[in-house]
Amino acid sequence: MRVSVMTFNIQHGVDYKRRRREEALRRAERERLKDQTSGTKAPPAAEKEDPSLIDLSLAAKVIRACGAEIVCLNEVRDTAPGVSDPCFTPQVREIAERLGFGYFYFGRAIDIAGKGTYGNGLISRYPILEAETIPVPDPAVKDEPAYYESRCVIRAVIDVAGRPLTVLATHMGLAMGEAKNAVRTVLSLVRPGEAAVLMGDFNQLPDSPILEPLRSVFTDAAERLGPGEMYSFPSDEPDRKIDYIMTAGPAEIVKASIPAFVASDHRPHTAILELG
Prior knowledge:
Blueprint: E1 2-9, H1 16-36, H2 56-66, E2 70-78, H3 91-99, E3 103-112, E4 116-124, E5 128-136, E6 151-160, E7 163-171, H4 176-188, E8 196-201, H5 212-215, E9 219-220, E10 243-248, E11 251-257, E12 269-275
Parallel strand pairs: 1-2, 7-8
Antiparallel strand pairs: 1-12, 2-4, 3-4, 5-6, 6-7, 8-10, 9-10, 11-12
Helix pairs in contact: 2-3
């Protein structure tokens, strides 16, 4: 039985091309005003987020074009009780509905005060039999010059035409301590002998020693890619690989690719698995 899987950091559905165009226009305008004025001016006030920049149809189109059947989504938003913000909607559900997928799950990593929630998502053509969100422990000491953010791992079991597939979906932190904790958490969730796929934005390059413990258990789909085919970020001019699909147990990687779609700031990473 073969199944197509994908990991895709959608940056909460922001239209990457439009955002880049608008940022370039704002920079040009600031330079123009700078040339026309003299003296020291106060920095511009922080701009309010524009909900029209969020276009979930772009992510849905990419997923549909790739033919993915099980998808890990990173940087997705959802609502929170008692809060209403047009930039925070149930994005996992909305993308699943656009695709006609009957199964979805949102894994909350953090609450954003006064706005909503944020984390990872999973959508599937196949039934999700069980799913849970496991927090990644924050480092006890935060002494790195890096941005810290609480993370999580989704662990789900999906019924792929009668074959159970364990799916682990995560988005690792930028700080080394966070990433190490994420690796330990993932390894604690793998059960011997089960078919499993681990997907997500790891924020680590392939030669990172932090990923070595994973490689002792999982096979990296990048082994099916050539050196020039691995890069996934940034999507318009990719120069590094930080998005991964890895398998363990009776789940063989038949094919892998990183298609050249520019919808989010990341390219999607896809693979076809053969389930034993």
